[in-house]
Amino acid sequence: MSWIFLLMAGLSEILWSTAMKLSDGFSKVSWAIVTVVGLIASMLFLLQAVKHLSFSLAYPIWTGIGAVGSVIIGVSLFHDKFSGATWFFVILLIVAIIGIKMTAGE
Question: What ranges do the domains of the chain cover?
Answer without folding.
Answer: 2-103
